[in-house]
Amino acid sequence: MKELLFKIAGVIVVLIIAFWGLTFTENEIIDRYNPLVKEKDVYALTKGPAEPDPDYPRRFMYMLNGVDESGNESEIKVGIAGQTEYQDTYIKVRVKGSHVFSLEEVKESDIPEKAKEKIKK
Questions:
Q1: pLDDT one-digit tens code per residue, 75-115
Q2: Considering the entire predicted model, what is its pTM?
Q3: Which of 5, 31, 50, 77 pairs as cysteine with 99 (C-beta 3.0–4.6 A)?
Q4: Contact 119, 113 (CB under 8 A)
Q5: Whether residue 53 is found in the same domain as residue 100
Q6: Residue 115 in contact with residue 43, Cβ under 8 Å?
């Protein structure tokens, strides 16, 4: 009986460690479904035209240094359809880890102060 309890406890510990380790991945697919990764809004400023995306033909991308509402910085990859669609604009990106849910253009006045300070640097 004790042996069975130790095995069950061992399996539970391994699962906890595995789920905890998943929070540190930079994989879009895993981040999308991982319940431990939180969704957040990230603000960024695009500069110049988008670059061709090497992973997807006929798509363009920006590699941006985004800032969330608290002022925490993170690098995000945003895929878009047109090369000049969001050129030199402020954008708000809804992300969960490295997975991008949505993208919208925003005015500078809509960006939280902590994020605005870091974006302008």
A1: 888 888 887 788 888 999 998 887 888 889 999 888 888 88
A2: 0.73
A3: 31
A4: no
A5: yes
A6: yes
Tell me the sheet residues that pair with 106: 90
- Tell me the C-alpha distance between 54 and 72, whole Å: 28
Q: Is 99 helix (H, G, I), strand (E, B) or coil?
A: strand
Long-range pairs for 19-26: beta carbons < 8 A, 24 or more residues apart: 25/97, 26/97, 26/98
| Parallel/antiparallel/unpaired status of strands 99-106 and 90-96 | antiparallel
Residue 90 is predicted with a pLDDT of 92
Contact 61, 14 (CB under 8 A): no
One domain for residues 43 and 21: no
What residues form DSSP beta bridges with 45?
Answer: 90
> In the structure, what pLDDT confidence band is assigned to residue 38 with cuts at 50, 70 and 90?
confident
Residue 68 belongs to what domain range?
Answer: 38-121
